[in-house]
Design goal:
The complex is a heterodimer of chains A (198) and B (416).
Chain A lengths: L4 H11 L6 H12 L3 H17 L1 E2 L6 E2 L5 H4 L7 E5 L2 H10 L5 E4 L17 H10 L4 E4 L5 H14 L5 E4 L15 H9 L5
Parallel strand pairs in A: 3-4, 3-5, 5-6
Antiparallel strand pairs in A: 1-2
Chain B lengths: L29 H5 L11 E5 L6 E5 L4 E5 L6 H11 L20 E8 L2 E8 L2 E6 L2 E3 L1 H7 L2 E4 L11 H15 L3 H20 L6 H39 L7 E6 L7 H14 L1 H7 L10 E6 L3 E2 H4 L2 H23 L4 E4 L8 H10 L6 E5 L13 E7 L2 E7 H11 L1
Parallel strand pairs in B: 3-13, 3-14, 8-12, 12-13
Antiparallel strand pairs in B: 1-2, 1-4, 4-5, 5-6, 6-7, 9-10, 10-11, 14-15
The chains are: A alpha/beta (198), B alpha/beta (416).
Chain lengths: 198, 416
């Protein structure tokens, strides 16, 4: 292909998005260029508008257009129950279940010494302040079930337990629709440990 | 599943006569064979490879029993075995850097193996490996169970006399199959150790609670490693003694002993002891910038006559015979644990080994297992009692011809 420096810059920008590799970036780049003028401008303005109107909630650190966010100010939410998640996107995922009626605290990541991320780089102090002063009775540690998320959950448990609340962790096990044959031994082992009566 | 007759293992009907009886070493008997489990479906039916070193293979069919990959040096024979190592969930026995295995000018590679129970694949992209079974992502441990392979390559030659890492890895490979949860414990231990090392070597003083998180993980997973290695060594020792006696090694019976400063501390106390050592060692290890104690420092010694370290006494030839015995023992234990005979992949089988020991080794292999040998001198295989199979001629990463090994033997016999 002839030299297209502006297209290369677009692909480089798209590749910085999570889960986007060179091939996906190229496909997305071509799709963006083949859009109609109005459609492309609508996309650009929606990105600009979303960036200008959203901010982080000063209480829970999730994304919001009003500060504090609707969950933090909703009187029907159970203020005694607090779910701790790594990223704002995790709040949306949990909200979609409509099962969780407590409030949230977004850490802004997970402990990762190998990438130089320590407790000071996360919103840990804000979490401890909320637990100390907001009448929280249970903290649900909903960090990801990977090495970094597990380490973060254990670290937070060490800090939170002396403060008195019940500290819980999301259950781990087989995903719905999975085949046992393809499950790894860690997942199966945790499924056995966390088995329940039906 | 079709039942395949249990293998006739070398014993009283061996052309070399009955195995020597060694006090304390159980011999394999006909009764053991009768109780052998139904054999599974683990052999390599076909192999494809693109972008991996110099290999260019498209669904190349292999014989269910014996495959001799022959060709001059540098044509890609060992690459075939290395590709099988990666597709079966193991690390390369040549390099720890996957990028080194890509063919020049390639950014990715794919290795695909047809087995009776499905297509197993390894995809290497940007230095990372993905394991697939029938197109679905699986872990390396699942791949290893689907296609169990015992390798014997040039990198194994230093196992007995070299540093502890090679012996530890060999025992760990076996423990991964014999001990439930071992692979997960190993992975957790290594990740926790890397994280703790980074905290210890960082500029800022590490957060005590953060260190404790990784020390808890190290102590829990480390205790599992200690118990798993002890269990694997206890299973391997009698099997190794039996095979060493069969290969006429002067060092049977043998005991594999896991050496560390925990001594004979009971398993129930190991976790607390490790946690205490990590806690007490913080300032010393902060100065060193890494974790100085734990199962990653274990050694595994091969002891004869109670406490004679065989590595300090055995000649090079005797060490190689013991390595053959170790391989036979690994094949036997995996067969028992997985209810299937693992594939044996033996690189340069005729270059470093005593002919008599090699013949005894070949005769002791189960009759239903698939075997892959590589050699620059294909005619040498005729002296081994391995059954029939195929000769695959290799040139510049391609198989340029395949013929029945029987034809080679006949030609050779007629020309003598």
């Amino acid at each position: 292909m002839a030299a297209l420096p502006s297209f290369d810059r677009l692909m480089a920008a798209l590749e910085r998005l999570p889960g986007i590799g060179p091939k996906s970036a190229r496909r997305m780049g071509h799709a963006l260029l083949s859009m109609g003028e109005a459609e492309a401008e609508a996309l650009v303005s929606s990105i600009t508008e979303a960036r200008s109107r959203t901010r982080t909630c000063s209480i829970c650190r999730s994304l919001t257009e009003e500060d504090p966010c609707r969950v933090c100010t909703d009187p029907t939410r159970d203020a005694r129950l607090l779910a701790v998640v790594e990223d704002a996107a995790d709040v949306e995922v949990l909200e979609k279940t409509r099962e969780f009626r407590g409030r949230y605290h977004v850490l802004g990541g997970a402990l990762a010494p190998l990438r130089g991320i320590g407790p000071d780089d996360l919103h840990v102090d804000g979490l401890l302040s909320r637990v100390a002063s907001d009448g929280v009775e249970e903290v649900l540690l909903a960090t990801n079930p990977n090495v970094e998320g597990e380490a973060t959950a254990l670290y937070l448990a060490r800090r939170l337990k002396p403060m008195g609340p019940r500290v819980t962790r999301l259950a781990l096990g087989l995903p719905v629709g999975a085949a046992l044959e393809f499950a790894d031994e860690v997942t199966l082992s945790r499924s056995l440990t966390g088995r329940r009566e039906i | 599943m079709t039942a395949v007759p249990a293998p006739v293992l070398a014993g009283s009907d061996s052309p070399h006569g009955p195995r020597p009886s060694v006090p304390g070493i159980p011999l394999r008997t006909q009764g053991d064979d009768a109780a052998a489990p139904e054999r599974g479906k683990g052999s390599v039916q076909s192999l494809s490879s693109t972008g991996f070193r110099n290999l260019q293979l498209t669904r190349h069919a292999l014989h269910p029993r014996l495959n001799l990959i022959a060709g001059p040096n540098g044509q890609g024979k060992t690459n075939v075995l290395e590709a099988l190592a990666l597709v079966s969930g193991r690390v390369s026995f040549r390099t720890s850097e996957l990028l080194d295995t890509l063919a020049p000018g390639h950014r990715e590679a794919a290795i695909t193996v047809g087995t009776e129970a499905g297509v197993l694949a390894a995809s290497l992209v940007e230095g990372k490996r993905a394991q697939l079974l029938e197109g679905r992502r699986i872990t390396r441990a699942v791949a290893a169970r689907h296609l169990p392979i015992v390798f014997l390559t040039g990198s194994d030659l230093t196992r007995l006399a070299g540093g502890p890492a090679d012996r530890r890895r060999a025992l760990d490979r076996l423990a991964a199959v014999l001990v439930p949860g071992y692979t997960a414990a190993y992975s957790r231990y290594e990740k926790a150790r890397a994280s703790r090392n980074r905290l210890l070597s960082g500029r800022r003083s590490p957060d005590a609670d953060e260190l404790s998180v990784y020390e808890d993980a190290l102590a829990q997973s480390g205790a599992s490693l200690v118990a798993g290695r002890r269990a694997a060594a206890a299973r391997l020792s009698p099997a190794l003694s039996r095979e060493a006696a069969h290969l006429s090694s002067p060092y049977a019976p043998l005991v594999l002993s896991v050496q560390n400063d925990l001594g004979s501390l009971p398993e129930s106390a190991v976790e607390a002891e490790l946690r205490s050592r990590f806690l007490e060692g913080r300032s010393r290890e902060r100065a060193a910038g890494r974790t100085l104690t734990g199962p990653h420092r274990d050694d595994v010694l091969l002891l004869a006559d109670g406490n004679l370290d065989v590595a300090t006494r055995a000649s090079a030839g005797e060490s190689r015979t013991l390595l053959l015995a170790w391989t036979l023992a690994e094949v036997a234990l995996l067969t028992e644990a997985l209810s299937r005979t693992p594939v044996l992949a033996f690189d340069d089988f005729d270059s470093e080994w005593d002919r008599t020991a090699l013949a005894h080794f070949a005769e002791a292999l189960p009759l239903d297992g698939q075997i892959l040998l590589t050699s620059a001198r294909p005619e040498t295989v005729q002296s081994l009692p391995l059954g029939d199979g195929l000769l695959h001629r290799m040139e510049k990463g391609r198989i340029t011809g395949t013929e029945a090994l029987g034809a080679i033997r006949s030609r050779r016999l007629y020309s003598v």
